[in-house]
């Protein structure tokens, strides 16, 4: 049986975010994933403000070689 102490905690780092200004709305977006320089809240469409949140690092998945081969198979 695994305990909480057995599970390693993910590495976190301070990440710039946009959070909703409305205290009742809990929406936030990573700044790097925002759709504009000053985004509107995706839930309530209100104003958002810049902030910092300590979050796990994003892991970017590499595209598979098979997919690339499939995309260019029509060239052969």
Automatic annotation (TrEMBL):
<dbReference type="InterPro" id="IPR025916">
    <property type="entry name" value="YdjO"/>
</dbReference>
<dbReference type="Pfam" id="PF14169">
    <property type="entry name" value="YdjO"/>
</dbReference>
<protein>
    <recommendedName>
        <fullName>Cold-shock protein</fullName>
    </recommendedName>
</protein>
